[in-house]
């Protein structure tokens, strides 16, 4: 593995370790681990650094509310850019009060005035 000194700016990282909050639902966890979501991250994130926080939208289906999930970059191994072959590894961090779910169809949903 390359050391920080040997890595040139613009080289693709071998691995990016990203954390999500403990209170992300199992459905949300499934979504962030899908191939298409990981492909989206690889295509839309350029330079990556430890400590970066990405607020990413997760769709909760046809009748749910939106869910923005803060993903935190915990470690970057190799280069400093997300690339097409960068492996994305997930870890769980402390809960942050994420609230998502099927509120549109429930009594907790928005009230029209």
Helix content: 10-25%
| Topology-level CATH name | Vcp-like ATPase, Chain A, domain 2
Q: What portion of residues belong to β-strands?
A: 25-35%
Task: Round the Cα radius of gyration to an integer and report it.
Answer: 17 Å
Query: Which segments are poorly predicted (pLDDT under 50) over 5 or more consecutive residues?
Result: 1-8
Number of helices: 2
Overall domain count:
1
How would a textbook summarize the main sheet? 4 strands, mixed
* CATH level 1 class label: Alpha Beta
Cα end-to-end separation: 59 Å
Q: Globular, elongated, flat, extended or rod-shaped: what is the shape?
A: globular
Order of helices and strands: EHHEEE
Please tell me the CATH architecture by its name. Answer: Roll
What's the number of extended β-strand segments?
4
Q: For the largest beta sheet, what order do the strands appear in spatially? A: 2-3-1-4
Structural class: alpha+beta
In round numbers, the mean pLDDT is: 82
What does this structure look like?
The chain has helices spanning 26-32, 35-44; strands spanning 13-21, 53-58, 67-78, 87-93. The chain is of the alpha+beta class. It has one domain (13-97): Roll (Vcp-like ATPase, Chain A, domain 2). The protein has a 4-stranded mixed sheet with strand order 2-3-1-4. The longest helix has 10 residues, at 35-44. Mean pLDDT is 82; it is low at 1-8.
